[in-house]
Amino acid sequence: MQRHFRETSFICPYLMNSSVTQNLDRAELRRHFRRLRRKLSVQKRQTHAAAVTRHLSNANLLLRSGAVAAYLTNHRDGELDCMPTIRRLWRMQREVVLPVVGRTRGFMDLYHYRPGTRLVTNRYGIAEPESDRDPVKLLSVSIVLLPLVAFDDGGGRLGMGGGYYDRFLGTVPAQLRPRLIGLAHDVQYSPSPLPADDWDIALDDIVTESGWRRCKDNHH
Description:
The structure is a single chain. The chain has four helices and eleven strands, in the order ααβαβββββββαβββ. It is α/β, with parallel strands linked by helices. The strands form three sheets. Strands 3-2-1-6-9-10-11 form a seven-stranded mixed beta sheet. Strand 10 (205-208) and strand 11 form a beta hairpin. Helix 2 (42-58) packs parallel to helix 3 (83-91).
């Protein structure tokens, strides 16, 4: 199906210049942006999550074939809640998978997530599916919805520092990767380019409460 979405002109009201971020290292940037998102009220977080789900639905991308990789939110740290989007996917009879870390040390896998799936808490305090079945292959996934600490104009993503997504996505060539969509609050926007290493994988798109932000022109 043809996808349609309106790209929003993105102006973050919280960081209008780059002076705050341009001289900070990764650890300082994480502290800075995690502090900003933790300051958001519970009501604002819920409103933002509902808006992001609406933006995703209006873009028709959720109608793509293939599984959708989502995530379960660390609410104590202020992440954009992905559960409203997961529920929307379930109502659409879509296959949802979640990351599971630690079964192979330093790496992550994807496992099915359905209503009633038993969850366990990993070493980071995040819930993940408990499954003895084989993991879902990345090549069967069409969209990955990623959490993040901060993002920039070029699709740069600052995560929590574990590198799980970069290692996992790096197992397949760029042209075979699913579409990578970061979910975030506006306050997580960095007006300065975030520090990046050669192995860091940029996002295709960002969706916040303000709308959709396209980061790459070479969409697959």
